[in-house]
Write a structure and sequence with these properties.
Ribosomal Protein S8, Chain: A, domain 1; KH_dom
Length: 247
Amino acid sequence: MSAVEQQASSHNAMDEDEDEVMISTDQILATTANTTAGASSSSDANNGSSEKPDFGPLSAKDEHSKRGEFRRIRVPPHRLTPLKRDWLKIYSPIVEHLKLQIRMNPKTRMIEIRTCDETEDIGSIQKAADFVRAYCLGFSAEDSLALLRMDDLFLDSFEVKDVKTLTGDHLARAIGRLAGKDGKTKYTIENATKTRIVLADSKIHVLGTFQNIKIAKNAISSLIMGSPPGKIYANLKIVASRMKGRF
């Protein structure tokens, strides 16, 4: 075979190979469509997996079905007799309005409060516990009831020794200055600052708003440090006039 014939046969073989490698336009369009569909399905799957779950609002009944809230408040010995007398005033608002369950355990001398299926507000048990605790500290049932009706009331407690270290007769005189003759000084501070104050030996409990408690504590601290009541009355008069002008 001559060189010309060999070259011609080699060109024919290359043309046949090129025909076998060539891909038609229909095959290209089909492959592109399949790739696009696969990409869109994978993107949908990724989007579905990355979406945040949508949880509905949690109701009080659903929360109580999982676990019940429970509170215990210890009753001091000197408040047992008033508790028997005012039990109906304490029992009624907690059961009728807050939809809670309450009982007095005479063995442990503790008041027990818990939620039930009828409880509507999860925070009701904390309000009830604060109400009962305020009564056990010495506040009247009517004054303690304000903790259930208003959200901006607080209870603050401190001792005379937290302000100044006093013992013996000095401590007794400081407590006497706080009370005043027939409770005049204590009532003046309460009316001027719109708070309620309980003097339990060397412990002092104040019930009111945050700002009013601060004013009452400043007046009480000044009396403990030895300021004369007349000076405290003058300062309280100024504070009372400012509070009236503010409102």
